[in-house]
Design brief:
- By secondary structure, this protein is mostly helical.
- The protein has 4 domains: 124 residues, no CATH class; 78 residues, no CATH class; 37 residues, no CATH class; 74 residues, no CATH class.
- Helix content is 41%, strand content 5%.
- The chain contains 15 helices and 4 strands.
- A two-stranded antiparallel ribbon has the order 1-4. A two-stranded antiparallel sheet has the order 2-3.
- Helix 1 packs across helix 6.
- It is elongated, with a radius of gyration of 26 Å.
- The two termini are 47 Å apart.
- The relative contact order is 0.08.
- The C terminus is likely disordered.
Length: 342
């Protein structure tokens, strides 16, 4: 996985360098600046570590993302090694060795060595789930994937109010104060560093947004309780009574509709599994397209919020997946057409 990430990211940096007529090093730093928060610092550290390679004009003449990632030890060239970009002329394995030797020379001129650099790069590949205090968070997200339940669902009705949980995770040793309100509804994680936004896995994107996460009798799609005169029991935003007619708004507005349960067969098929073009096309990549890229990964690169089932999404997020709504509508209309006109 790390090898694929190295190849793709360095390939994008190379395309951005051509697009902006900029050096590979400067363009890599530009790409880092598009990333949110602490990831930007992490990316900067890696690029600065690799600066002797990125600024060596002779090395960059033979540079390809595949050779680069193999040479610095992120990918390993065994009998079944593969490549994503066009191979340079000659033997691919020997090209890797030549690039590695030239990189040794470049670092030696800086009173360093490629071996030290590879060890430093390896130190970047930490497992956040092994850090003190983080295991509880990782266990929560792992549970959501194995049980297909929201990772944060206080009333246990399988619906969550959270699309994004803003967890304040500061010091690595910290998470030392977990405060729950008396009713047990709010969880605040405090310590001393940056705010890290993460998606509540299997949250409101998947089943619709719960409007009251402390009452398991209130959730999206249920039959209204007492015509929802006193409260919105089915989370459609409609409740109360029309003072002019004396009739419940739920009855006036929804009486001609019927609630139906729908089952998706296959998450990724029904939820538009997709890799956004804006992440890979250098003409489209921007801070806006990358500012919250952890959310799609926590949704397993599915986009259920664009489907016709849940219909709930944050409209302030950039539209990374285009025409997904129309694709869902075409499928639904096709199903209706087959039903009406067999």
């Amino acid at each position: 996985m790390s090898g694929a990430a190295c190849t793709i990211v360095s390939g994008i940096s190379g395309q951005l360098a051509v697009l902006h007529n900029e050096t590979f090093f400067n363009e890599s730093l530009r790409l880092c600046q598009m990333l949110p928060g602490s990831l930007r610092t992490y990316c900067d550290s890696i690029v600065q570590t690799l600066e002797p390679i990125f600024t060596d004009s002779e090395l960059m003449k033979t540079f390809t993302p595949d050779i680069f990632c193999y040479a610095i030890g992120i990918c390993y060239a065994d009998k079944s090694f593969c490549y994503l970009f066009p191979k340079p002329p000659g033997n691919f394995y020997l090209n890797i060795q030549d690039f590695k030797m030239a990189a040794h020379v470049a670092y030696k001129q800086r009173n360093s060595s490629l071996v030290d650099v590879i060890e430093k790069l390896a130190s970047f590949q930490f497992d956040i789930c092994k850090l003190p205090g983080f295991s509880m968070i990782c266990d929560t997200f792992n549970k959501s994937y194995t049980t297909l339940q929201p990772s944060l669902d206080f009333d246990g009705d399988y619906f969550s109010i959270y699309e994004v949980l803003n967890m304040i995770i500061r010091s690595v040793s910290g998470l030392n104060m977990i405060i729950r309100s008396v009713s047990g509804l709010n969880m605040i994680i405090r310590s001393v560093s940056d705010e890290v936004p993460t998606q509540a896995a299997r949250g409101s994107h998947w089943r619709g947004r719960d409007c009251t996460d402390w009452n398991d009798n209130i959730y999206p799609g249920r039959l209204p309780v007492s015509e929802d005169i006193h409260k919105d029991s089915n989370c459609n935003g409609i409740f109360g009574m029309n003072p002019d007619t004396g009739e419940a708004y739920e009855t006036e507005l929804c009486n001609c509709t019927v609630s139906r349960g729908v089952i998706y067969l296959g998450d990724s098929v029904g939820a538009h599994f997709h890799m956004p073009e804006a992440w890979f096309n250098p003409r489209l990549i921007s801070p806006e397209s990358l500012h919250n890229f952890t959310m799609p990964f926590l949704d397993e690169l599915d986009w259920p919020e664009y489907g016709f089932i849940t219909g709930f999404m944050n409209t302030t997020e950039p539209l990374l997946i285009k025409n997904a709504e129309w694709a869902a509508l075409v499928v639904i209309l096709s199903c209706f057409q087959e039903t009406i006109y067999p």
